[in-house]
Amino acid sequence: ETGVTQSPTHLIKTRGQQVTLRCSSQSGHNTVSWYQQALGQGPQFIFQYYREEENGRGNFPPRFSGLQFPNYSSELNVNALELDDSALYLCSEGSYNEQFFGPGTRLTVL
Amino acid sequence: GENVEQHPSTLSVQEGDSAVIKCTYSDSASNYFPWYKQELGKGPQLIIDIRSNVGEKKDQRIAVTLNKTAKHFSLHITETQPEDSAVYFCAAARTGSARQLTFGSGTQLTVLP
Question: ω before A8 within 30° of 0 (cis)?
């Protein structure tokens, strides 16, 4: 079991809406990453935050944005939801060495 | 950018047999190669990793080998058990300020009792 928790577990939204997903860690790592995992595929890197600053971004549009707070918890915000945004969203903690993932938030866009 | 290919996509073995999953990567600068196990409804769990200065690493029934020249690495599971059934992902990353993992497409391993 990792110390990474994510909320909510499941979420249903309609196209065009906005969503905020949350991630927190008991261990308080200063680096958090977010990944999108479509059904039947491997996770894809969205971005990473280090000490509250974005520290690397994958091939995702600007409507995917994030925040990291002083207590190292994090949020992923997605605006103008599209059907293809339906996926499992994972956050991970850790940086140079191992990355440990939370259980994910399953987002369904109708 | 990095591209990781993983084979096979599905693998069925009898309990007690060995399982091998293979991955290739494209970025010669990648130097960190973790393997994750993902069970239904859960996030990926790190099971073993290897760095580019090592050719092989073993942890009980699990081993990983790395061939940097050929740019491929493999996961070996011996004496498979039903609880090994899951989806396995390989990944690659390069040293840098952002440890961006590029994942393979996954292997559904089924261990038949």
Answer: yes
Q: Does B85 touch chain A (CB under 8 A)?
A: no
Number of residues that make up chain A: 110
CB proximity B103 to A under 8 Å: yes
> CB B99 to CB A48 under 8 A?
yes
Query: Is B99's Cβ below 8 Å from some Cβ in A?
Result: yes
Residue A95 is given by DSSP the state: S
How does strand B45-51 pair with strand A19-25? unpaired
Other CB atoms within 10 A of residue B44 CB = 32
Residue B98, token pair as written in the block: 């952002």
Of A106, A28, A102, nearest in space to A68 by CA: A28
Q: Which of A40, A55, A101 sits opposite B98 (nearest CB)?
A: A55
Q: How many Å separate Cα B47 from the centre of its chain?
A: 9
Distance from CA of B70 to the nearest CA of A (A): 23
Q: How far is CA A30 from CA A65, A67, A68, B89, in A?
A: 18, 12, 9, 25
Q: What is the pLDDT of residues A43-102, one digit of tens each?
A: 999 999 988 899 889 999 999 999 999 888 999 999 999 999 999 999 998 866 678 899
